[in-house]
């Protein structure tokens, strides 16, 4: 995350088994929240704050906020396309995609 309202990179390609680390390097709090239904059906759900679903993450946004300097990691085991969002900044277009090969 480099600009206050975008993931950098916005889209990335990785190999299965790779761990991705998001670091909040802005002064604004952000979440990393997978969209339900926009990850492979057999993949583990992921969200900062440890939520098990997008609904749970949206119901407790502050529980998933990464403060400046905080990190969140997820290991992508299942090939496919994963789309995610920063819930508080979704309307600003803060979304990202990880493609796992």
Question: What's the helix and strand layout?
Answer:
Elements: E1 11-14, E2 18-23, E3 33-34, H1 54-59, H2 61-64, E4 71-76, E5 80-85, E6 95-100
Strand order of the largest sheet: 1-6-5-3
Instruction: Return the CATH topology.
Output: Immunoglobulin-like
Query: Measured on Cα atoms, how large is the radius of gyration?
Result: 12 Å
Main beta sheet: 4 strands, mixed
Report the structural category: mainly beta
The SSE string, one letter per element, is EEEHHEEE
What fraction of residues sit in β-strands? 25-35%
Mean model confidence by pLDDT: 95
Q: Globular, elongated, flat, extended or rod-shaped: what is the shape?
A: globular
Describe this structure in words.
This protein is mainly beta. It has a single domain, classed as Sandwich (Immunoglobulin-like), CATH 2.60.40. The chain has a 4-stranded mixed β-sheet with strand order 1-6-5-3, with no helix packed on it. The protein has a two-stranded antiparallel ribbon with strand order 2-4. The mean pLDDT is 95.
């Amino acid at each position: 995350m480099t600009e206050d309202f975008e993931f950098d990179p916005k889209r990335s390609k990785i190999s299965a088994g790779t761990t991705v680390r998001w670091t909040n390097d802005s002064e604004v709090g952000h979440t990393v929240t997978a969209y339900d239904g926009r990850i492979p059906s057999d993949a583990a759900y992921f969200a900062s704050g440890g939520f098990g679903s997008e609904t749970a993450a949206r119901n407790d946004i502050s529980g998933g906020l990464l403060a400046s300097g905080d990190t969140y990691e997820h290991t992508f085991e299942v090939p496919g396309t994963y789309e995610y969002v920063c819930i508080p900044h979704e309307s600003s277009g803060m979304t990202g995609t990880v493609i796992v090969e």
